[in-house]
Amino acid sequence: MESVTGTIIIPGEAEGVLLASAEPLSFWGGYDQHTGEIIDRRHPLSGDIGTGRILALPFTRGSSTTTAILLESVRRGVAPAGIITDRADVFLALASVVADEMYERAFPMVAVDREVFDRLKSGQRARIGQGGIIDITAAS
Amino acid sequence: MVLTDYDKALLAGEEGPAAQMAMRILNRMLPVFGVDRFMDVEAAHIDSTVYMGIATMEYAERLAALGAKVRVPATLNVSGVDEHGWQEWEVPEEVAANATRQMRAYEAMGCIPTWTCAPYQTEHAPSFGQQIAAGESNVIGYYNSVIGARTERYPDLLDICAAITGRVPAAGLHLDEGRKGTVLLRLRGVSRQLQEDDAFYPVLGHLIGRMAPDGIPVIEGMEVQPTNDQLKAVCAGGASAGAIALFHMVGVTPEAPTTEAAFQGDMPPRVIEVGMDELRASYRDLSTADGEQLDMVVLGSPHFSIDEFKALAPLVAGRRKAEGVDFLVTCSRTVRMVAGHVGLLEPIEAFGAKITVDTCPLTSPMLPDRIKNLMTNSAKYAYYSPGLLGTDVVYGRLSDCVESAVLGRVKREEGPWKA
Predict the structure, then answer these.
(1) How far apart are CA A41 and CA B412, in angstroms?
(2) The domain containing residue A55 runs over which residues?
(3) Per residue in B321-333, pLDDT tens?
(4) Which of the residues B25, B35, B378, B384 would you substitute to probe the A interface, choosing the one with the greatest number of A C-beta atoms within 10 Å?
(5) At A109, which CATH number?
(6) Could you report the per-residue pLDDT of B170-229, keeping only the tens digit for each?
């Protein structure tokens, strides 16, 4: 197991299987709010399911509606359990803040250095804990 | 954290519970923006209008019920339905009802009901140097790049908080230093003839979004002065394939009279040469299909302008689209009205085209299931249709779209785009 420490963007704890890509994503046109599927057909994660995962993306591209889609996904219970980025991403963080305001269902977010981000691999298990510490274990 | 008396009053609820909720959200976001204070904005453009489901409606109605009123002029982006025309399409009644409720909520907050993703085509467009809070990715790009107004890249749900309070984090693109170019894209061997081709601009936008997704690209090597519609196409492409909130085009956009000015006197940190190989790859990447199948042509993302209607009308005059192909143009209510008054809609409707206002097929579930193959001249429609609509898409210039609609199958004048 490896532990890394990032910057807390939204505090909280979550655990799940990592779904990671170095390519940014727009949730509008990129994440299905009914199924949690990644639906940007030009994205490397196209077809994967984000529900309950620890989703690792460097940042969001594209539409301002990314935040609305992620909020709808939280409300429907198909959002990722937690999100790791390589910088403070306003679009994703706002979805968690508003999910807390509206439904008391915030999800945690941590930003890590690019060098750490690049070591994250889909299939690993990740646990976001207190203090921005992320425990990563190899795929079982 | 450095809060003014007004900020503190907002947080304490002295300006009412809606302003308190809006400021509470802004205040929680302040550290995410990486700054410790707020600043004033003079106007806003609200993308929160896009109906995505119960949550976006409940959010709008929560604010409205708390008595929210916007403090600065706030134009409204597209809705989830063409309010008076949705019945002609496949929009589920429940979606229409909820989206309309969401429209009423934003109107009740005192916003300007422009219902368009091209508010820069209205009399409410900002001017150079104005501080704005804008949502909608293409609008953010256009306000910053083409007009030289200043807005950060705001998401839905936060733009309305800024409009209600008149406050935003003093960060990023609002500040001089945040507007400096980060990468120089040097056009090489890109002929004047190609730059005069409408097809060039969406392709260029898509390319800068791919090459510098989180940067402020500076484009050098323009030999023509693009029109506002052509620049709009660059904005929409760059904000779909990437997160481009500002680009500079040397000799064209207001903050880039020279390359040096675009980099604020510094050397470009990175230089990328862009030639025909890169542009052709970008052109190809905009299409997901290479067959001739065609079910629908869709134009107007961002919303069609009067000039675009003027370009379309003579292309379709006296002609008729093929039976099996739908032809849709999306625009604002105002542009449709003006186009109608000056006689531009007659030939277009006689051609068999339909006009949808307030929204577009990406934000309103309006298309019948049989639509599987789209054609468009918009990089934004081309980027999002496969994911949002489950269709394939072919990108082509305006005249290609018209000729294909007449023929009933995809036909493009490849010209310089041929590999």
Answers:
(1) 23
(2) 2-137
(3) 999 999 999 999 9
(4) B384
(5) 3.50.30.10
(6) 999 999 999 999 999 999 999 999 999 999 999 999 999 999 999 999 999 999 999 999
